[in-house]
From TrEMBL:
Binding site for Zn(2+): 323, 327, 346
GO biological process, one term: proteolysis
Protein name (database record): Aminopeptidase
Keyword presence, Cytoplasm: no
GO cellular component: cytoplasm; membrane
EC number: 3.4.11.-
Organism: Aaosphaeria arxii CBS 175.79
Cofactor note: Binds 1 zinc ion per subunit.
Segments forming domain Peptidase M1 membrane alanine aminopeptidase: 251-468
Length: 885
């Protein structure tokens, strides 16, 4: 057994599972019975009597091992709950190598924690099949979520990614419902139980346990077909929903069949299964899950109504559909060898998901969005001491859940984008296609990918990418100017700004993307293409203009001298959108870390009053919003920054207006949402008055069209902030009665704008009631945590209700609990709060969310340090520029 990971004995390997689920209790305890026959290959040359496999919350009734036609009954069944295993002892030791069959009868429960085989509650639309499980208020559908290590919650199995096998699945369920699995139906038979039937599904390809999926519910579907033929047929593509929602799957359906064809061409391998099903699941811990042939989605990531949904969800759906389809090849066809290489799945699927979205919607400018969202979020996480390398040692299942994070997804995809830009897309994708062909239906490592890319490009990929994958953190390149040349120095970037020598030993290969010329309009690439040592001098620089990291494809920060930052601000109209976004993000991060000052950031963004691009404005709002949040407790600075914010945003707000025009492009609509929300929350009186006017018309029922679906969050948020209890109750009622797919998320985020401790505590109590689904409990909490007026109430609530509500409700799924704590507590800016959090959790068993707590601690202390250092600098700048009297 490898010492760096807790894995099953390597001498037993499964090759095939025949799984039957039956006698499901549709109500009450939601129990079910199961049988599984596992074909094994045994290679132990010593005497043995025991086989160990994974289970969690499963009761094994009986087991027999069939060796050369002779059955051996289990003599002892013992569970190790901490390791999530069951040991089956077959009595006296014996010697045997070769094939065997392990037959197990077991019992499980369809839980309500969004892991394993679980149930989702929903309020149905229209008629419902009579047999559907229900209680007084909700109906239930059943589905699975097995990644990372939760197949073991559904049936006994060898639940590790490199223990691939094929699967036959049989499900018994009521005749008036629908059952789905990875593969199409093979045979449907009547059950011996009246009113029930049994569906046997076709055998799956060889795959990991975490990709197995099945679902039972009152489902209906819409269908399309791929334009390309696969084995002589156009593949059926379906969106499944509970009854009454299928038409909201049209947008996803239209994307899905196009993306399947696109990836089949890009990867040079046809989609390998006979069908593609997408299932909308009413309660879901993540955004979606790439189960082979039966992809499951949170409803807001797959359903869209042209009349009632906010347009921003179109962008999300297009990307998430593409991301999960990318996994059908990158992850499912070729799987990482162990969870330490999760980034191979998630980093690549993130990058290629945006690649496909850009292919379908070039007008969305998605690579600028990638820099605004993905790259900046990856930087924020990776700038902490508590970060981890992209490829990180993973000991067991509880650890792997915590690396489904911004490093695996966003830093991983950012580094892939950097490599793709360096090699060129065509060469890069050829290497990826070669990698997939070489390892299909098996497992692979990071080195296997580097090898394929090296062969395709003729370059030693490992020599310059290895450190990006295996070392923690990323660099900041500090620029010093001299006539005709610049000195460059790389060092590890930490948000706290205090990297010790032993933390700053990595020398990254840094693609410089250096462009210079007599002006921004005619700059061209410099002959020096990379920084490969700690310090270097680059000559032949035209002092008139230069920019580093053109189009922001390199994963590093750049710290320019203050006067150069100002000059780049003056040249902003000749910079690409990704460069503008990167420039602002770098200036903010450099200020927080102490490499530069906030005065330089404010002077830079003051120049952007004439900006018109949504994604650039989004970065301005994010960076300025963070500064305002950190200094929200310093009264004069807080007011000065508010005035600065209003001056910056008012011209654009007045220009864009409230009305959506026919055929208006997507990004203009997004800009309107951003500007109106930002201005209204910052106290722009005309915006507040118009929002309240529209809100009153909407909630009174006089004119429901007064609130455009895409402006619900804007208008609800402003109204809750300035409308007191009356507006709070109205939005809460909207939450309870909304039947739009995105309505509940929008209302919860808006309710977080309350301004009194009384309403904040009421909202937190409501948030932990049965009225708010487990999947959504972080949404309102994060909104409250981002609201400086009531932020202390979040920590107070967690502290006072940890044992009675927070831990009992969320600890059944540590992914949910860790996310709740990390995003609910990371907005504080006083080290004293970090001390309180540390003290509160020090004697608790924090395994499963300890990394989230470490991120919170590091973030708070870094912001506290920044606040102390730059307070006087910001005050002076605001006074000098007339924002503080």
């Amino acid at each position: 057994m490898a010492s760096d990971r807790d894995i099953l004995p390597s001498w037993v390997k499964p090759s095939h599972y025949s799984l039957s689920i039956f006698d499901i209790e549709f109500g009450g305890q939601f129990s079910y019975q199961g049988k599984v026959a596992i074909n094994l290959n045994i290679s132990n040359t010593e005497s043995w009597s025991e086989i160990v496999l994974n289970t969690l919350q499963i009761k094994v009734h009986s087991a027999e091992l069939v060796v050369e036609g002779s059955p051996r009954e289990v003599q002892n069944i013992s569970y190790n709950e901490k390791q999530q295993r069951v040991a089956l002892d077959f009595g006296e030791k014996f010697q045997y190598t070769g094939e065997a069959v392990l037959n197990i009868k077991f019992e499980g429960t369809i839980n309500n924690v969004m892991a394993g085989f679980y149930r989702s509650k929903y309020v149905p639309k229209g008629e419902v099949a009579a047999s559907v499980a229900k209680d007084d208020e909700y109906h239930y559908m059943f589905s699975t979520q097995f990644e990372a290590c939760d197949a073991r919650r559904a049936f006994p199995c060898f639940d590790e990614p490199n223990l691939k096998a094929t699967f036959d699945v049989d499900l018994e369920y009521p005749e008036d419902q629908v059952a789905l699995s990875n593969m199409p139906e093979k045979e449907v038979k009547s059950s011996s139980k009246p009113g029930f039937k049994v569906t046997q599904f076709e055998r799956t390809p060889i795959m990991s346990t975490y990709l197995l999926a099945f679902a039972i519910g009152d489902f209906e579907y819409i269908e399309a077909f791929t334009k390309r033929e696969y084995n002589g047929k156009n593949l059926p593509v379906r969106i499944y929903t509970t009854r009454g929602l299928k038409e909201q799957g049209r947008f996803a359906l239209d994307n899905c069949h196009k993306v399947v064809d696109f990836f089949s061409e890009v990867f040079q391998i046809d989609y390998p299964l006979p069908k593609v099903d997408l299932l909308a699941v009413h309660e879901f811990s993540h955004g979606a899950m790439e189960n082979w042939g039966l992809i499951t989605y949170r409803t807001t990531a797959v359903l869209f109504d042209e009349k009632t949904s906010a347009a921003s969800y179109k962008n999300r759906i297009a990307y998430v559909v593409a991301h999960e389809l990318a996994h059908q090849w990158f992850g499912n066809l070729v799987t990482m060898d162990w969870w330490s290489e999760l980034w191979l799945n998630e980093g690549f699927a993130t990058w290629v998901g945006w690649y496909a979205t850009d292919h379908l919607y070039p007008e969305w400018n998605v690579w600028s969005q990638f820099v605004t969202d993905s790259v900046q979020l990856a930087f924020a996480f990776d700038a902490l001491r508590t970060s981890h390398p992209i490829e990180v040692p993973v000991y067991d299942g509880l650890e792997v859940d915590q690396i489904f994070d911004h490093i695996s997804y966003l830093k991983g995809s950012s580094v892939i984008r950097m490599l793709s830009a360096h090699l060129g897309e065509k060469v890069f994708l050829q290497g990826v296609a070669d990698y997939l062909k070489a390892h299909k239906y098996s497992n692979a490592t990071t080195n296997d990918l580097w090898s394929a890319l090296s062969n395709a490009s003729g370059k030693d990929i490992n020599s310059f990418m290895d450190l990006w994958i295996r070392k923690i953190g990323f660099p900041v390149v500090t620029v010093t100017e001299e006539p005709g040349q610049v000195s460059l120095r790389q060092q590890r970037f930490l948000l706290s700004g205090d990297a010790k020598p032993e933390e700053d030993e990595t020398v990254w290969w840094i693609p410089l993307g250096l462009h210079t010329g007599s002006s921004a309009a005619n700059a061209s690439g410099h002959k020096t293409t990379a920084l490969t040592q700690k310090e270097d001098i680059v000559r032949d620089i035209d002092d008139s203009f230069y920019v580093i990291n053109k189009d922001f494809t390199g994963f590093y920060r750049t710290n320019y001298p203050p006067q150069r930052l100002a000059k780049l601000g003056d040249s902003r109209h000749h910079l690409s959108d990704p460069n503008k976004i990167g420039l602002i993000g770098d200036a903010y991060a450099s200020a927080v870390a102490g490499h530069a000052s906030t005065a330089g950031l404010l002077a830079l963004i003051e120049r952007f009053q004439d900006e018109t691009n949504y994604l650039v404005f989004s970065q301005i709002a994010a960076s300025l919003g963070s500064v305002r949040s950190i200094f929200s407790g310093v009264e004069d600075i807080s007011e000065g920054l508010r005035q600065f914010h209003l001056k910056l945003f008012t011209p654009a707000v007045e220009k864009i207006g409230w009305e959506y025009k026919d055929n208006e492009d997507f990004l203009t609509g997004q800009l309107r949402n951003l500007l109106l929300t930002s201005a209204g929350i910052s106290g722009h009186e005309p915006t507040i008055n118009e929002a309240k006017r529209r809100f009153d018309l909407y909630v009174s029922g006089k004119d429901k069209s007064a609130v455009h679906p895409s402006l619900r969050k804007t208008i609800f948020s402003i109204s809750v902030k300035y409308g007191g209890r009356e507006a709070y109750e109205a939005v809460k009622n909207e939450y309870l009665t909304s039947d739009s797919i995105d309505g509940k998320e929008i209302c919860l985020a808006s309710l977080g704008r309350v301004q009194t401790t009384e309403l904040a505590q009421e909202f937190l109590a409501f948030n932990f009631s049965e009225k708010v689904a487990m999947q959504d409990k972080h949404t309102g909490t994060v909104a409250l945590a981002s609201n400086s007026k009531v932020r202390p109430e979040v920590w107070k609530f967690i502290r006072e209700n940890w044992d009675s509500a927070v831990h009992p409700q969320l600890s059944g799924n540590f992914v949910v609990l860790e996310r709740f704590l990390r995003f609910g507590l990371n907005k504080y800016t006083d080290a004293s709060v970090a001390d309180e959090i540390q003290e509160f959790f020090k004697n608790k068993d924090n395994r499963g969310y300890d990394k989230g707590l470490a991120v919170v601690d590091d973030t708070i202390r870094s912001h506290d340090k920044y606040k102390s250092r730059d307070e006087q600098i910001i005050r002076e700048w605001l006074k000098t520029n007339g924002y503080i009297q």
